[in-house]
Amino acid sequence: xxxxxxxxxxxxxxxxxxxxxxxxxxxxxxxxxxxxxxAPGAKKAINLKPATIISPExxxxxxxxxxxxxxxxxxxxxxxNAGTQTGQQIIENVDLFRENDLGNIFNTKVEEAxxxxxxxxxxxxxxxxxxxxxxxxSTSESTKPPKKPRRDGQSNKDFKLVPLxxxxxxxxxxxxxxxxRLQAGANAVKNFTLQIMDRxxxxxxxxxVKGSEFNLSPSELRLETGMSYRWQVKSTADPSISxxxxxxxxxxxxxxxxxxxxxxxxxxxxxxxxxxxxxxEAIKLENEGWEYSATKKYQQAIRMDKKNALAKALYKAYLxxxxxxx
Length: 326
Prior knowledge:
The protein is of the alpha+beta class. It folds into three domains: about 25-100, no CATH class; about 115-145 and about 255-320, no CATH class; about 160-250, Immunoglobulin-like (Sandwich). Helix 6 (about 275-285) packs antiparallel against helix 7 and helix 7 (about 290-305) runs antiparallel to helix 8 (about 310-320). The protein has a five-stranded antiparallel beta sheet. The protein has a five-stranded mixed beta sheet with strand order 13-19-18-15-16. It starts with a helix and ends in a 5-residue tail after the last helix. The protein contains eight helices and 19 strands.
């Protein structure tokens, strides 16, 4: 009798575990070579693409030299052997999946990015994001994005100019691109005055700029590593139209290079496709406070593969977290 009860308890726990796993999405993060996916009820298989959520009843067909990167239940895995497997077979293959810190961060970011809300977001020519008119009003409670942190000048209607980058964090010594935009509905501005100051607000450089970006080279102003700096932009004609003051730290590029070198040897990074490597680098940079460089990495990943839906979704979620939507 006692053995029977133990067996019953074991079966119940096993069923609960399988049910918990079924709530997790099996998601494709990268594809190389010839790989097809046939969704349940579909008449034929189609080319598998990143950001596809694999149904337990769907099947992945991997051809010779094909490779699929997968995320599931805070873990990552790779399909590399030619053949056909259902989503359920993949999920049940406990030897397929691995776990490490980079994979955990990657999974967390992906879980946020696949929120349907971000499908209503468009990337503009400058590489930032805008919500389509009316999209937020029709967003259901289940598809609302997570709360975002408040940063200097973001979503603050008292300032008519929004600093886009650098918007804080660490910036490597070298040429720095400053970008900003007008708040939606603000009057047009032709010329801007950009000021870069030390932490005591002493102006170190002031430039009149036509347009909404300025590249600061070391020959114009050499920023000292280990020091904090501030920047602000105003309308030249009407200084009351301004951004908040943003503070950032100038850090030796060698520190960033060391951070990127730490990815080498990581099995998730080493086996990833070049596009996915850029995404992993962006995630690592953001996690360590290098938002300026993270922005560049995300943008580079999208330029490399403009059809990569996962790269775009992750970048949109990143912009949302940092309050950089129009």
